[in-house]
Amino acid sequence: MLFRSAVSFSALAQTGTPNVDKRRANQQKRIANGVASGELTAKETANLEKREAKIEADKAAAKADGVVTKGERAKLQAEENRASAKIYNKKHNARTTK
Question: Are 14 and 67 in contact (CB under 8 A)?
């Protein structure tokens, strides 16, 4: 019985993506702050939201088989890194809504 619980817990731990979830929440806040401050235009915001939706879809696909592999985690991490850089670049370019 104890062995079965340990195996089940181990399997659950492999399907979680807590780092991706934390980064996604943080990046959503950064986008919202950019919209509120006028640093992001509507077009830039739509582009960033589309990128975030793709990351979410890729995360769901990675979880679909019940295990998120090291390679899938690395891919998600790389996507988050690119999205973060895009958010920074779009917030700090010359385009504003004000």
Answer: yes
- Which residues lie closer than 8 Å to 73 by C-beta, 6 or more apart? 17, 19, 20, 62
Tokens for 19, please give them. Answer: 């780092």
Q: Which helix (H) or strand (E) holds 96?
A: none
Q: Is 30 in contact with 91 (CB distance < 8 Å)?
A: yes
- pLDDT by residue (tens digit) across 73-91? 999 999 999 999 999 999 9
Burial of 16 (0-12, 13-18, 19+ CB in 10 A): exposed
pLDDT at position 14: 63
Alpha helices in 38-96 (DSSP H): 42-63, 70-91
pLDDT tens, position by position, 18-35: 888 899 999 999 999 999
